[in-house]
Amino acid sequence: xxxxxxxxxxxxxxxxxxxxxxxxxxxxxxxxxxxxxxxxxxxxxxxxxxxxxxxxxxxxxxxxxxxxxxxxxxxxxxxxxxxxxxx
Length: 87
Known about the structure:
Layout: H1 2-7, H2 10-21, H3 27-40, H4 43-63, H5 69-84
Helix pairs in contact: 2-3, 4-5
């Protein structure tokens, strides 16, 4: 939400502000409005890029651990599971 608010301009920013303070509105309508703004601002892609950067940083750290590859394998398998899950 912070990135969306920083990137939004004009009407988008006004709409985000309204969604944040909205009361008495249908929650589904608010979610739809915010989702549309996220899509318009490519927030999902920005988030995925950041997530991937953190995974890469983690893989680099794991690679540098002074333990055997056999000991690293369960953690690598779990990390790969996390990366490839849908939700």
